[in-house]
């Protein structure tokens, strides 16, 4: 059974305002990763109001810095996915960017993106812990207008991936439009979703932009110390235009 497993924990006190932990993460099909994450969901620190200015509340602030089951599922898929020469890959809502780290280690041209003000700091630290070279990071906030700076996600990608990004109702279709803007004409978009209720509405928004979807169940029962998972991989690709 493919899963991520955590090793020994080490509390860290060297980051201001919040506690972190360090874990050895085993990813089937890939080398282990050392990941620093927030200690728990109770951590919060926004002394300059940077997160608040982006609409990130104290309740949602720590979510970027935790390891989530759907993120683990995506990382596992990227560990064994066939590599395509010259392709550009983008991870949206990356959080701790497990999937991006797996891709980066495999030599993929990958860009991680998130809107949380600390996501890039944690990414740099986890790259350092694993002895990796720098990885491209950009700000990607699909519910807001781009700032037009080099810090924003720019250009188009051959694969766009994300995990558990359908966590809120998006009546305006902001995410779908963001994906349409940054996907090449033949791109695939991989979303691992833990059966959230917004999936159907999102697929309708994608269909309006000519994206067809193929769904794959990722369910597996609990085994030993491996927790059960229920969810699916959603693969979107633009429908071919009739000649």
What does this structure look like?
With 243 residues, the protein is α/β, with parallel strands linked by helices. It has a single domain (59-238), classed as 3-Layer(aba) Sandwich (Rossmann fold). 22% of the residues lie in helices and 26% in strands. The protein has six helices and eleven strands. It has helices spanning 50-53, 69-80, 98-105, 119-129, 174-182, 199-208; strands at residues 5-6, 10-12, 20-26, 33-38, 88-91, 109-114, 136-139, 157-163, 183-193, 211-217, 232-238. The strands form two sheets. A seven-stranded mixed sheet has the order 7-6-5-8-9-11-10, sandwiched between helices. Helix 5 links the parallel strand 8 and strand 9. Helix 2 (69-80) runs parallel beside helix 3 (98-105). The longest helix has 12 residues, at 69-80. The protein starts with a strand and ends in a 5-residue tail after the last strand. Residues 1-15 have low confidence and may be disordered.
